[in-house]
Amino acid sequence: MKYKLIALDVDGTLLDDNHVLTPATAETIKRVAAQGTEIVLCTGRAPLSCIPFMESMGLGGYVITHNGAATVDVNTREIVHEFAVEPSALEPYIDYCRKNGVHFDVNTTYGIYVDKLDEIGPEVLDMYHKFLIEPLNLPAWVDFTEPIVKMTASGLTDAMNKVEADWNLWTHELNMLRSGDYFIDLMHPEASKGNALKKLAEQRGIPAEQVMAIGNFYNDITMLTFAGLGIAMDNSPLEVKAAAQDVTASNNEEGVRLALEKYCL
């Protein structure tokens, strides 16, 4: 068995554009897991937004969440590792968002907090519900009882392009990551999918050459380059394809299934 650990991005990779995990892809993943390969979802989502996909396939193990900021045990919900952010480092970004009308949320591993929850529109709530999230009202920093792992600014593509351009002019203490057309994440400088996958592989005693990773966006590049085999989806930007060793079909053409059949079955 060449690959003992396989990391799968979720949105734009495992799921099609309707956020559906197709039965054929799920069945192929289960066949690969039955051979003894560990499957780990490696995603920008929160744990409760991705663990249900593991459970639907009858899989345990781990999920790497918040773009690498938190790793969680699927069965016990135990937090295996977190990259915590100092709240003070987020304050300039929060000030910018408030002044410019940019929606943002602040994340602990299991909680997602939004500014003035009672004032956000139904379309924003629908976005959270699509990701199986029930947001909470943002408290004062002193009232947080768990470490903060991520802040996310979100909006339409053009608005996020403007935010990204503005923030690129700043000097950053944090890792600023474009995690999708509609999202910009701010995390601990060492937090990334690649670093989290490396830590998990070391914990499991699995060398990088026995790790496969499949992804589709800029936030996946670190895990594609860490893994012994990095595979980009056909719906990936050119820079992501360039970082990978192979390109599979798109997420709407069951690219994950085809890659697993090619390399693992």
Automatic annotation (TrEMBL):
Enumerate the GO terms in the molecular function aspect. magnesium ion binding; phosphatase activity
Fetch the Gene3D superfamilies from UniProt: 3.30.1240.10, HAD superfamily/HAD-like
A GO cellular component annotation here is: cytosol
**SUPFAM superfamilies under this entry?**
HAD-like (SSF56784)
UniProt name for this protein: HAD family phosphatase
Source organism per entry reads Paenibacillus zeisoli
Output the lineage of the source organism: Bacteria, Bacillati, Bacillota, Bacilli, Bacillales
